[in-house]
Amino acid sequence: MDVLFGWLAASIILLLLQQAFLWLFLRRQHVQMRHFFIGTPGYLEFKYVGWCREHERGYLAMVILRVVLLISLILAVLAIQSALKGVA
Question: What is the pLDDT along the chain (88 residues), one digit of tens a residue?
Fold first, then answer.
């Protein structure tokens, strides 16, 4: 069970770090963002993709990383949920 909670914690931390680094990157590039929407899933990715298209840069790696991190978080939650059902 400790491994599952470690997986969950790591997934959350990595998602938050990725979100923070993406926000800082976009801010340093002077991308206009509405602060109200920063926590909305997909908003920063949308802004990043727009910036990449504007500057003719690739964006696929960052989007794939984000999807992989979200899938990892979902799988960790499902694994903990099924493990807790087995205990009860």
Answer: 789 999 999 999 999 999 999 999 999 999 999 988 888 888 999 999 999 999 999 999 999 999 999 999 999 999 999 988 877 6
- Number of Cβ within a 10 Å radius of residue 38: 15
Burial class of 59 by CB neighbour count within 10 A (0 to 12, 13 to 18, 19+): middle
Q: Are 15 and 87 in contact (CB under 8 A)?
A: no
Residues 6+ apart with CB under 8 A from 25: 48
Q: What is the dihedral of CA 56, 15, 84, 3, to 10 degrees?
A: 110
pTM: 0.83
Q: Which residues lie below 8 Å from residue 26, measured CB to CB, with a gap of 6+?
A: 33, 44, 47, 48, 51
* Residues 6 or more apart in contact with residue 47 via CB below 8 angstroms: 26, 31, 33
